[in-house]
């Protein structure tokens, strides 16, 4: 696939602005994006003319414009990520015979955005729109395991951040880090009765093009119905689905060590 240089430069500028906490000078954009200053000003003028960038002349800074907001709103309306994920999750349910879901990290919680229920399986707490403590869920741990340690520490600064549902789960940053280290080593995360007693989950991360985790794919099953061999088989299918979703969103290849079914 051929890349159009001008389009790549425009996207680089927009992506850079989207990561800033406030409008920035053109010189900073030029320096950090790696563009000649003249090119940067031409791109900014073009983007400003179409409303994707706003120029603040008094401050000599640039920020995202209304058209960028409309673009983000359109993304929310279309829910393309959910659309891309629904078929792979349905296939995951067929292959494992258990309920599957997709969750995204929001602060210290995960929000469930898709749930696919297996025939004959009871509904679970992980319905669409439900929020749960990220450190207790397999999906949350799968995502947290690939975040920088400093970011995890910022999310969980002290013991008060470690809420519990049934008296189980990590209560300190040290305990959480041990679970995240285990998840990285395995290539998938688990939880056992920490969300719902008698049920366990296995989850793997979906990555974007920077290899940053954007979601967790999970399967939940009753403990008495699944032995260790079957659990590993389910983990392989979950990891395979996470890889497929990573590919669908144009993400980076997951790190080695994630099992195959």
Automatic annotation (TrEMBL):
Domain HTH iclR-type as annotated: residue spans: 4-66
Keyword Repeat listed: no
InterPro entries noted in UniProt: GAF-like_dom_sf, HTH_MetabolicPath_Reg, Tscrpt_reg_IclR_C, Tscrpt_reg_IclR_N, WH-like_DNA-bd_sf, WH_DNA-bd_sf
GO terms of biological process kind: negative regulation of DNA-templated transcription
A Pfam family of this chain: IclR_C
Keywords: DNA-binding, Transcription, Transcription regulation
GO MF terms, alphabetically ordered: DNA binding; DNA-binding transcription factor activity
Region: Disordered, residue numbers: 242-261
Domain spans labelled IclR-ED: 67-251
SUPFAM superfamilies: GAF domain-like, Winged helix' DNA-binding domain
Claim: Transcription is one of the keywords in the record: yes
Source species, domain of life: Bacteria
Protein's recorded name: IclR family transcriptional regulator
Organism of this sequence: Streptomyces vietnamensis
